[in-house]
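Figure caption, in words: inputs first, then the predicted bound structure.
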Amino acid sequence: MAGTPPRLEIRNIVRRFGGRNVVDGVSLQVQPGQVTCLLGPSGCGKSTTLRIIAGVDMQNSGEIYVDGKLVCDTIHRVPPEGRGIGLMFQDFALFPHLTIAQNVAFGLKGSAAQKRARVEELLSRVGLLHYAEEHPHQLSGGEQQRVALARALAPRPRIMLMDEPFSGLDNRLRDDIRDETLAVLKEEGTAVLLVTHEPDEAMRMADEIALMRDGRIVQQGAPYNIYNTPVDRAAAAFFSDINVIQGTVRGALTETAFGQFLAPGVPDGTEVDIVFRPQHLKIDFDRSGKGPNPTPLAGVPARGVVERARFMGRESLVEFRMDFDGSILKATVPSVFLPKPGTPLWLTVRRERCFVFPRKE
Ligand SMILES: Nc1ncnc2c1ncn2[C@@H]1O[C@H](COP(=O)(O)OP(=O)(O)OP(=O)(O)O)[C@@H](O)[C@H]1O
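Bound structure (adenosine-5'-triphosphate present):
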């Protein structure tokens, strides 16, 4: 690509432990001011990837570039402190014997006046200037996390690596700290690579999500695209509960109780999973044994009987036992609607909300 190189680029990183590729050919780029989330289940290799970029672990093959300059392959290796990288980890504790200001100043170079100016700038940005002379134990968990952010940002790192930085905080506080952190990182124009196993965190923070499984990135893109066009059943299931209807392809179509689904390019006889999220199952009332009329967009309605309905605050989760095969499908609906078990209702699902994937055993 012509023009400015990415702030961070990794190419084909492989890391083996005990004969297993724990990181198996990971490539990605992060631009200045952009947050990329490495998202995946526990053990998929996220932290190992981050540790390699930080320089505290070493890849078996692959390269790391910062602003287009090679900082590490299997021959050259810039030490961690020479990479312009800041770190923020959940258990990256503050120094208990130093004041808040001394903690933030810890990695800074320059004159005393320059250091003081930078510390004051960052502490006021995270709203903690009045705590400058206190010690960490006098601050709440959320405040300590903000100090940790200020400390990591103080030397103006070109790249910030964050590994589950908010997981020690309780829910409400976590949302606030995430938003504040994001605002500060954007102002500083830092390129951020954030590791998390929580889809909500990734959706809230990321400009781009790299979904990782078994050491590989299986899908990469804006949160909206990753959520709405998953590459496979597991990618869909990572973000929410899913419904799955099984079918077999005949003539690029598969027949279900909801009518036909297109399966272009899928060979005859292939078993497929038709996957959709519970919020996309639409409910209609029973009109003397009939449901709404079929439409090209929503297909044929199918009847189910309410098995269970649970109130969950903002929404209700309703489980239906379907007449056609006795399977259970789930719908989330606004919680004003809480039908009684045994109520027959009709269900439809819009075609553009469904994904047809060849079944993997
Ligand atoms: N030093 C090591 N020696 C041997 N195996 C390791 C080492 N470090 C990591 N692993 C293994 O590599 C795999 C990936 O670990 P990693 O910590 O990168 O996963 P993760 O996706 O970050 O998971 P988590 O969210 O639980 O930290 C795991 O199976 C882990 O046991």
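The chain has a mean pLDDT of 91.
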